[in-house]
Amino acid sequence: MRFVSVANMRDWIRTTGSEHIITDLVNELETDFRRWTDFEREPRIASHSSLGVIELMPTSDGVAYGFKYVNGHPSNPSRGFQTVTAFGVLADVMTGYPTFLSEMTILTALRTAAVSGLATRHLAREDSTVMGMIGAGSQAVFQALAVRSQRPGVTRLRLFDVDAATAETASRHLRTLGFDVSVESSAAAAVRGADIITTCTADKTNATVLRADEVPAGAHINAIGGDCPGKTELELEIVRRHRVFVEHEPQTRIEGEIQLLPADSPVTELWRVITGADAGRASSDEVTVFDSVGFAIEDFTALRYVQKATAATRFSEPIDLITEPEDPKDLYGMIGAPVLV
N or C terminus of the chain: which is more exposed, having fewer CB within 10 Å? Predict the structure, then answer.
């Protein structure tokens, strides 16, 4: 069994390049979205508390099985901890043996960005040049890279965060990466004239960080902030008024922006646009909304990509996690006789 540690994940990304990995992941995700119905598709298993949520996200395509363990605790940074931590596992369906273990805190950021990139590829206007971002935390830089990977004309970025220091840190990274960044004084200023809008906030509440009257005609919105029941970012009128695209509708009904809409409100799963089963953007002035909450198939894709990319390299290592007695029916015999002292 192979293992990618935090240190090896960091070194692999530094060596390969975040933008290159995100671009690869967008392509890998598109491949798996095209075979969406081959996968087991169930909403994540969640354990909620007053401070956050711990979740398991499992799926299988009948050949391999994968799951991610992930938490979401918005108040963690005030106590010196990250909002999100994660790890993931792949296993062989035929034997049930785990084959791969990886950190997924950093990988989830890349995966989440790549999913936004995939939605941008299929829903945003091709002539997009300006990105507005509300929320400058852990996801911000990755999200900007994902959008640019699919819309290279996007070089202007307007950024807003309630934490000025966080906004300055993100803007410094983004300028180093070639973006023309301005830190704005409000969410409304950040999205003014934007072709693509990303909301990535973490507060566990029904917040309104973006109002319907602030959304420019023709904009595409990636609403990707950490989601859970009772957590929203968009004014409800935005998802009432405009076409909404989701990953797995039953899960998004629980955790996404559409959780406050009637259960029969129309939405389109993104895989249907990618396969041509449903239409995407209808016109240049249409506003499209990708209500993304993250789904297990995306983590499966990311894990398989990293497993292949790091195989036979210094970035993965063997881990002794599988017990293999000489006689598979004699587990006690592997322990041997007690040692007398």
Answer: C
Q: At what angle do helices 6-16 and 18-34 cross, to 10 degrees?
A: 100
Two tokens, residue 63:
């050949």
Helix or strand (DSSP H, E) at 142 = helix 140-150
Per DSSP, what are the bridge partners of residue 57? 68
Active site residues: 227
CATH code of the region 2-106+297-327: 3.30.1780.10
pTM: predicted TM-score of the whole model, two decimal places: 0.94
- The pLDDT tens digits for 270-310 are 999 999 999 999 999 999 999 999 999 999 999 999 999 99
Superfamily of chain region 124-294:
NAD(P)-binding Rossmann-like Domain (3.40.50.720)
Q: Is 275 within 8 Å of 269 (Cβ atoms)?
A: no
User: By the 8 A CB rule, do 71 and 82 touch?
Assistant: no
Q: What is the DSSP letter of 87?
A: E
